[in-house]
Write a structure and sequence with these properties.
This protein is an alpha+beta fold. The strands form three sheets. Strands 7-8-3-2-9 form a five-stranded mixed beta sheet, with no helix packed on it.
């Protein structure tokens, strides 16, 4: 005898965008669920109120829905989700005003319209927050990106200054004092690159990417670039002088010990030898570097006077010629002022790192 076709109990609830139907059937086999002409068709073998049987029902929706129902089988029921074509609140589920006998509200999921609106707003806010976090990145991701960016910057600078240091050292060992006079033409391109890239270091300090104070970084950047691009770079007569070797060599010595320390800091490592060199090598190197810069400025003054480069005449009625050497003389004073500021800053750093601990009073 053929199994009798019966109607299962169906419970429904809604949100502004979706309909939820719960079909009370267990051990469902071969469910046939589809939507055609805005009518939901359900047919399945399962165990319901009338025992093991074939159960089916048809529901014509009040408004238009999307014809792709989503269902999930559990051991005790079938859950069906239907998307509304237009996000709105329905007065009822079916087109016919009289509710079918097998259909009832699902009070486990039931919300009135105002509660559903609050839930919708909460979901939308959660979605926007998720998008914002994805676009901004999690704090851990941002920290890792920051460390990776700083590590790569310090690595590039270390390689650049190491190339300059090794090049000058090898040339001096082979050529002796003769290597002094073509230093600029040998390593100028790499020095230009490193010093232009050093702008990033000052920007990092300015925007808080690093905790370094801005003033010492800015003083070093402007001072070195003034020497490199103006005093040496614009005057061919200066490019062949021995002082260029000492300026470049002293700059590179300081940096090949500084940047490895920063690289290790990015990966949370502390090598005592590297740390000690970073906080100690500057003591003789920094004053000697400033002295070499001052010598280069002094040697450039007569050349700028002779060529008249960057000199200018004030407009009428003053008509006084202002020589660029006047600014170079002022800059000589600023070199030693900058030396004081940066030396004091570096000394404080070293004292914080290696300062003597106060003895406990017994």
């Amino acid at each position: 005898m053929e199994s009798q076709v019966l109607t299962p109990h169906v419970y429904w609830a809604q949100r502004h965008r979706e309909l939820y139907l719960r079909v009370e059937l267990s051990d469902v086999q071969n469910p046939a669920i589809s939507i055609t002409e805005n009518v939901l068709h359900f047919k399945a073998q399962g165990h319901g109120a009338k025992g093991d049987n074939v159960y089916e029902f048809h529901l014509e929706f009040l408004e238009l829905v999307k014809p792709e129902p989503i269902y999930k089988l559990t051991q005790r029921q079938v859950n069906i989700t239907v998307q509304k074509k237009v996000s709105q609140w329905w007065e009822r589920l079916t087109k016919q005003e009289k509710r079918p006998l097998f259909l009832a509200p699902d009070f486990d999921r039931w919300l009135d319209e105002s509660d559903a609106e609050m839930e919708l707003r909460a979901k939308e806010e959660e979605r926007l927050n998720k998008l914002r976090l994805e676009s901004e990145g999690s704090p851990e991701t941002l920290a890792n990106l920051r460390k990776g960016y700083l590590f790569m910057y310090n690595l590039v600078q270390f390689l650049g200054f190491s190339w300059i240091f090794v090049n000058l050292t090898v040339r001096f060992c082979i050529l002796g004092k003769e290597s002094f006079y073509d230093t600029f033409h040998t390593v100028a391109d790499m020095m230009y690159f490193c010093q232009m890239l050093a702008v990033v270091e000052t920007i990092n300090a300015a925007i808080g990417v690093t905790s370094s104070p801005l003033l010492p970084s800015l003083i070093q950047l402007l001072g070195r670039n003034f020497i490199l691009f103006i005093v040496i770079g614009t005057m061919e007569e200066m490019q062949n002088k021995a002082v260029v070797f000492f300026v470049f060599y002293l700059w590179s010595i300081g940096e090949i010990f500084r940047y490895p320390f920063y690289m290790l800091t990015c990966v949370d490592m502390d090598w005592k030898v590297v740390t000690w060199l970073r906080y100690t090598v500057w003591i003789p190197i920094y004053p000697l570097g400033c002295l070499a810069e001052a010598v280069s400025v002094i040697q450039s003054i007569p050349i700028f006077n002779e060529t008249g480069r960057f000199s200018f005449t004030l407009p009428y009625p003053v008509k006084i010629k202002v020589r660029f050497s006047f600014f170079l003389q002022i800059y000589l004073i600023m070199i030693f002022l900058g030396l004081y500021i940066n030396f004091r800053h570096l000394y404080k750093q070293r004292r914080r790192r290696y300062g003597q601990k106060k003895k406990k009073v017994t």
